[in-house]
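quick one, two chains, predict together pls
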Amino acid sequence: MKCRKALQFINDLLDNALSDGNRAWLEAHLRECRSCERLATQMRESLGLVRDLPLAEPS
Amino acid sequence: MDREYNGENERDDVRANPLREKAEWKDRSDEELMLQVQQGNNVCFDLLVDRYKIRLFNFLYRMVGDREEAEEIAQEAFVKAFIHAGKYKTIARFSTWLYTIATNLVRNRIRARGRAPQFFSIRELAREEDGETKQVDLVSGHRSPDEAYNDAELREIIQRSIQKIPEKYRTSFVLREINQLSYEEISAVTGLKLGTVRSRINRARSCFRKIVEPLLHNGLDF
């Protein structure tokens, strides 16, 4: 249950839409849950690949 | 409303200086320009095409994975927007309206193909002309992220990974992550409820992570 909540908060974080209170909760959870901590890192990295793609130019 | 748009301003021959006319309108909002288009001012439509051609192309390219097809659909979307300009109502943002047209076109294309999402292997990407395969260098610890982004192969892998996301989730994902639309805008474009948009984007992100994570895990050194 906590991990499901964490996943939602990770998504909110990726949208820069996580409140301070929820961020503190998430950070505490990530300190104690390696699995969610790994998930958060992977989500951030993989999404970073997409977000940093250079804009393609039409010919 | 029957109109033809051939990418040229039909009033060029009667206007002394179309470039000056473009400059005159260039700071207006999209919606103001569309009102002008509805009154027959094609220069304003040219300005809208200039504003949106790259963004629209990128949305379509990430959706279909083929440059030529993306350009074709973009052209089709602009022509459709021009022909149906009379139906546009300024209560909606022009960008929302245009993306809605493009989303419908791309969805029809993908469905007409009638094929499942393409699966690929790294070996396939690396196949050389003589039929031999070479190892794709995704794992060099010596490359900085900037250098990695210069790698056309990596971009191709990301592109194909995006395409492996089911179309149902991919549209919202691309509109959000590539085109940076808000959830509200995506809801307006797709006609989905806000909660559905959120859940589709979250699913797409998880899906994308599962596709690319092994590649990262195997050595992309961020």
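The helical segments of chain A are 2-14, 20-32, 34-51.
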